[in-house]
Write a structure and sequence with these properties.
Shape: globular
Distance between the termini: 15 Å
Helix content: 25-40%
Oligomer: single chain
Strand content: 15-25%
Radius of gyration: 12 Å
Order of helices and strands: EEHEEH
Number of strands: 4
Number of helices: 2
């Protein structure tokens, strides 16, 4: 929850840069299959990748995960 951010475009960016690309691809497929949320993978530096959920799917994703359980992260739900 603390390793991501709302992007200025209104999308959600996850700091997955320490994960293997293969693992991020698995997460991307699960989001599409189980949550019906389309995401993209962006290259970040050399051999690092970030998972990004576009604005059009942001509210759907946040609704899926529910209310923010930690008050200091509530600002991340304000889209």
């Amino acid at each position: 929850m603390g390793d991501g951010s709302l992007h200025v475009s209104g999308g959600i960016r996850f700091a997955t840069n320490s994960f293997k690309l293969e693992d991020i691809l698995i997460l991307q497929k699960l989001l599409k299959r189980d949550v019906k949320v389309i995401s993209t993978i962006h290259r970040w530096c050399d051999k690092q990748y970030l998972l990004y959920i576009p604005k059009v799917y942001s509210k759907k994703f946040l609704k899926y995960i529910g209310d923010c359980p930690v008050s200091s992260f509530e600002y991340k739900w304000n889209i």
